[in-house]
Amino acid sequence: MTKKKNYSLFDDVCGFVDEAASMMDIHPGLLDQIKQCNSILKFNFPLRNDDGTYEVITGYRIQHSHHKLPVKGGIRYSTHVNEDEVKGLAALMTYKCALVNIPYGGAKGGVRIDPKKYNATQLERITRRYTAELIKKKSIGPALDVPAPDYGTGAREMAWIVDTFEAFNPELINAKGCVTGKPLSQHGIAGRTEATGQGVFFGIREAVSVEEDMAELGLTTGLRGKKVIIQGLGNVGYYSAKYLSEAGAKVVGIAEWNGGIWDEKGIDIEAIKNYQIENKGFKGYPKGLFILKPSDLLTYPCDILVPAALENQVTAENADKIQAKIIGEAANGPVTQEAERILLEKGVMVIPDMYLNAGGVTVSYFEWLKNLSRVSFGKLEKRYDMEKYRKLMGTIENATGEAFTDEEKDALIKGASERDLVLSGLEETMVTAYHDMNQKRKEKAIKSLRTAGFILALERIRTSYLDLGIFP
Ligand code: GLU
To answer: Would the pTM count as exceeding 0.85?
Structure first.
């Protein structure tokens, strides 16, 4: 998972936006306002190590668009973090939220560290200090800016963030909504951990369900039997692989930063994940072939390639060699603008990041709503619904003279749990957004789903500004 010189994620995102804007009627001033980042915060702070040495840590929080508040987006811990990357990722959050109709502006944060090199105590110190910097600058809060996990962070870091924020804001009743992706015990929500991968699954499932689109690619509809290669078996890659294979797809390749695995018979996702955790990689895994240069796997034969690691992976250098018919961008920015041109020319379908990985922010939105209302979903109505369905079934049994089986009763009477409702809301969001985007693509007679997604997002953001009378 290499990064090439002179690559700018932010320029790439702006390039995609310009392409979409060229097919719309949008005031150039408004377009410029939409493209720029509204606020850029960079700070350095000292970290005292256990051995008494010190180092200076660099952090960012960039708010791309205030057209809706709060702004929303994850915090990344990686050595690749720099201003350009965070700007690009923040911008992508704006367009992602607009496309899937989640009422937030976009933001992103980052800390330039390799989290693998620090122990939990050091990471806690870094995270709490990072949060304090955000509090000082009023760049975090349930009404202002709501971070979440991203590459290199997870529920543990979010717990430290909410704890620090609450310590500084003891009187704020909505303080729990200052960050999402928290552990359940810290008022997180059921299903957030797997949400992005679950959304990737729903998105790809929708894409392969459209008969005329699949016919154009020379594929049949449905996931069953489709060969999949995944890049990155972290949170997003793992859950994407798990749900895709549970639906009948065959994961034949997995690339990780320290080596890949290739097995045409299909890889058992649980087994390989457990092996990876125990052995810190795939080397020595008893099945399949170990691939020394993981980036090679991107060009192996498959139906669906799912890059779920970092940006800038499919570039002008390897796009031509890609054999997949569909690329599902689970990561943010894995396919460059130049690469996409080559892929579309070859007839490859690219399901864009701004749509495909929106499951994370969608379930974050549900978590934030739960925190603001301070009640978990389903708590009030579950028993009431169960009773109503029980009575309804009794009435049907009396009227027909036929009894339901116990299985039917269980399935019909069961009231919705928080997890059921989260899943239902996520599925609805992903299904609706896919067909909106694909319809826009067909309406504009273009090949690129991404351009269609950006047009839709820009149309919605433009409406926010126009309704305020800003720009003609
Ligand atoms: N980091 C995730 C993303 O890139 C989730 C953001 C969120 O939940 O706010 O979409």
So the answer is: yes
